[in-house]
Amino acid sequence: MARRTFFSFHYTPDNWRVWNVRNCGVVKPEGLFTDGFFDSSVFEASKKESEDNLKTFLRNGLKNTSVTCILAGAETSARRWVRYEIVQSVLKGNGLLTVDINKVENKDGKTCTKGVDPLTCIGLYKTENGIYFAEKNGDKWVKYSDYTRPIPESDLWFDAPTSKQVVTLSKHCERYDFIAQDGRKNIAGWIELAADLAGR
Q1: Model pTM?
Q2: Is the distance from CB of 112 to CB of 73 less than 8 angstroms?
Q3: Cβ neighbours around 155 below 10 Å, total
Q4: pLDDT tens for residues 10-66?
Q5: Measured between alpha carbons, how far is 100 from 178 in angstroms, rounded to an integer?
Q6: Which domains does the chain have, with CATH numbers?
Q7: Paired strand residues for 76
Q8: Pairing state between β 3-8 and 67-72
Q9: How far apart are CA 12 and CA 14, in angstroms?
Q10: Which residues form the Thoeris protein ThsB TIR-like domain (predicted)?
C-alpha cells in the first residue's frame, strides 16, 4: 500500500532535484506501482501570505499524511519553514526520515554540497513544566519559537526526553542518500519503515 507522504524541502535551490525524486514512481505503468508514495507537498505556498496563514497552509498540507520525508540539500537544515513542517509532523505523529538529494543533478547538471541533517537541528527537552521543542541556532540550542506549548509525552511515538539535555529527532529517525542508496528503487521501503517506526 502506498503511503501518503509529505515532502519538506528548500524550494529555491532544490526544486529541480525534488521534482525528480517526487516523480520517480509516476512513470511506472498503472497497476505496477504497488508500493511507493502519494505526494502532498505544499511548496507552491505563496510567500506573500501572512505568517499565520502560511502556518495554517503548511499544517493543512500535512493532513491525511502518515510520513514526512525531508529532502535535504545543502541549506535545508537552516530553513525556518522546513523546521516548522518537522515540528508539526512530530505533533501529528508522522513518521520521519531524511533523504539527501545533494548528488541529484539540477537542471544544469550540477550537484551540491551535502548539508546537515535537518533532524539534527530540532530536538526535545524536559523541564519541570513539561516537554518542549528546541532548535539549533549556530552552535547553541534555543527554545523553538514557532511552537512554545508543552508537548504531552503520550503524543510522542518515540521515547520522551528525561532531562534538560536536548535529544535530537535524528536519534529516532533514519537518514538515506538518494543516489548512493538507489532511492529510485528503495525510497518506498524507506518511507514504509518510517511509518512502521511511528506505528502508522
Answers
A1: 0.90
A2: yes
A3: 12
A4: 877 787 888 778 777 644 444 433 444 555 455 455 556 678 888 888 888 898 899
A5: 6
A6: 3-115+173-197 (3.40.50.450)
A7: none
A8: parallel
A9: 6
A10: 6-105
